[in-house]
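Whiteboard transcription, Tuesday session. T.W. wrote the C-alpha cells on the left side:
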C-alpha cells in the first residue's frame, strides 16, 4: 500500500480516512440529569445546561484524538432515529405493542403515529446543530446524523402503524412525495445552518440483507425486491442535487442495541440496487463480523467512497491492526484504495442505553481506527 500513498489527493469533504459513525456512550452526569428530568426533579432548561456542558467536553475529546469530523454524540437523543421523526410536523410519539427484536433482547416499545401531513418545520435538531457548530469551531467539520427517509417509511408501516398511516395518506405516492419534500427541506435547512456533513442512518437495507427477514416478507405477501427499489428511490430523491460543498452519506446498519444485533447476511441481496442506485457521496458499511459477508458486493459501487466499518463498537476487544490492513487490501480489490476509508461499524450508543464497554474502551477503539488509517493512507 505504501507505493500508492503518493497518488492520494487530500480530502476536503467527509468521509475522512479515519472516521466514526456518530453516537457515543452517555456520560454519568448526563444519564443522571436525564433520569432527574424524567421524574420531574429538574426542568428542560436544567437538562439542556447539562447536555451543553457534556457535548462541549465530547467535542474537545473528539478533536484531541484527531477526528476531523465531530458529532454531539447524539447526547440529546433517546434513539438514533425516533427523536428526529418525532420532531417532524405531522409525526408524534406512540407506544407500540412490542419493542424492536434484537438477538436475545427487545428494546423499549416506542414508535411513531401520524397526526397530519408530514412537513419539516422548525425542527429541534436545527437548534441542536447550531450549538454543535459553535462548539466545534472552524478547525473541524460538525456532522449531523438523521435517520434515512427509507427508515421513516419503514417505521410508518411497522406493526400496528400501517392502518393509521393510510388514514392520513390513502395514496402511497403522496406519502412518498411528502417524505421526500420534508427531507429535502431538512437538507437545505441544515445546510443554511452551516452543516457540510449530513449522514443518513438506515437499518432497512441491513434487514433486507437477512435471509430470514426476506422469507418473512414473502410469506406475508411482501416483495423484498420491491421494498429495495422503494427505499432506493426515497434515499436517492433526497440526496439528489444537494449542495456541492455538502457531503450526504448513507450508513447501513444491521442493528446496534446494547451490543446486540438484529439482522445477519451479506450485501449481495441488495448490492446492485443499493450501491448502483442510491446516489449518495459515500457508504458507511458494517464489516466487523462474518454476519456482513465478504467484499464481493462492492463490485457494484460506482464513484462513491466506501467507509469500511471493520472495527466493532459492540465489544471492548481491540482488533489486530495488521488484520485490519489486510482486510482493507482485500476490499481494495473491488474499490480503489483511494476511495476507501476506515471506521467503527456503528456508533457506541445508538440508543441512550449504550453498548457494553466503558468510555475509555470506546476511545481506545477510536484511536485504533485513526492509527490504522494513518498507517494505510497518506491523507
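and on the right, the sequence the group agreed on:
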Amino acid at each position: 500500500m505504501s507505493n500508492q500513498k503518493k497518488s492520494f489527493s487530500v480530502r476536503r469533504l467527509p468521509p475522512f480516512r479515519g472516521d466514526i459513525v456518530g453516537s457515543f456512550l452517555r456520560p454519568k452526569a448526563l444519564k443522571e440529569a436525564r433520569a432527574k428530568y424524567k421524574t420531574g426533579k429538574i426542568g428542560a432548561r436544567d437538562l439542556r445546561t447539562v447536555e451543553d456542558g457534556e457535548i462541549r467536553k465530547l467535542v474537545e475529546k473528539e478533536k484531541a484524538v484527531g477526528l476531523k469530523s465531530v458529532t454531539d454524540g447524539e447526547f440529546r437523543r433517546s434513539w438514533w432515529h425516533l427523536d428526529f421523526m418525532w420532531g417532524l410536523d405531522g409525526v408524534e410519539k406512540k407506544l407500540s405493542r412490542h419493542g424492536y427484536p434484537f438477538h436475545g433482547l427487545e428494546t423499549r416499545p416506542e414508535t411513531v403515529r401520524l397526526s397530519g401531513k408530514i412537513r419539516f418545520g422548525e425542527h429541534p435538531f436545527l437548534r441542536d446543530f447550531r450549538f454543535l457548530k459553535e462548539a466545534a469551531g472552524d478547525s473541524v467539520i460538525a456532522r449531523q446524523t438523521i435517520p434515512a427517509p427509507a427508515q421513516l417509511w419503514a417505521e410508518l408501516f411497522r406493526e400496528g402503524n400501517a392502518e393509521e398511516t393510510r388514514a392520513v395518506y390513502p395514496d402511497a405516492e403522496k406519502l412518498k412525495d411528502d417524505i421526500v419534500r420534508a427531507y429535502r427541506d431538512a437538507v437545505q435547512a441544515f445546510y443554511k445552518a452551516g452543516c457540510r456533513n449530513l449522514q443518513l442512518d438506515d437499518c432497512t437495507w441491513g434487514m433486507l440483507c437477512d435471509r430470514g427477514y426476506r422469507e418473512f416478507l414473502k410469506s406475508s405477501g411482501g416483495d423484498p425486491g420491491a421494498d429495495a427499489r422503494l427505499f432506493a428511490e426515497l434515499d436517492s430523491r433526497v440526496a439528489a442535487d444537494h449542495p456541492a460543498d455538502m457531503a450526504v452519506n448513507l450508513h447501513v446498519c444491521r442493528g446496534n442495541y446494547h451490543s446486540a444485533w438484529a439482522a445477519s447476511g451479506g450485501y449481495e441481496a441488495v448490492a446492485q440496487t443499493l450501491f448502483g442506485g442510491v446516489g449518495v457521496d459515500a457508504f458507511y458499511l458494517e464489516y466487523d463480523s462474518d454476519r456482513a459477508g465478504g467484499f464481493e458486493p462492492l463490485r457494484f459501487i460506482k464513484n462513491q467512497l466506501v467507509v469500511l466499518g471493520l472495527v466493532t463498537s459492540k465489544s471492548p476487544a481491540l482488533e489486530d491492526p495488521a488484520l485490519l490492513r489486510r482486510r482493507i487490501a482485500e476490499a481494495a480489490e473491488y474499490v480503489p484504495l483511494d476511495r476507501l476509508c476506515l471506521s467503527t461499524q456503528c456508533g457506541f450508543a445508538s440508543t441512550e442505553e449504550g453498548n457494553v464497554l466503558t468510555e475509555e474502551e470506546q476511545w481506545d477503539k477510536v484511536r485504533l481506527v485513526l492509527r490504522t488509517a494513518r498507517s494505510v493512507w497518506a491523507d
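Someone added at the bottom: Residues 1-8 have pLDDT under 50 and may be disordered.
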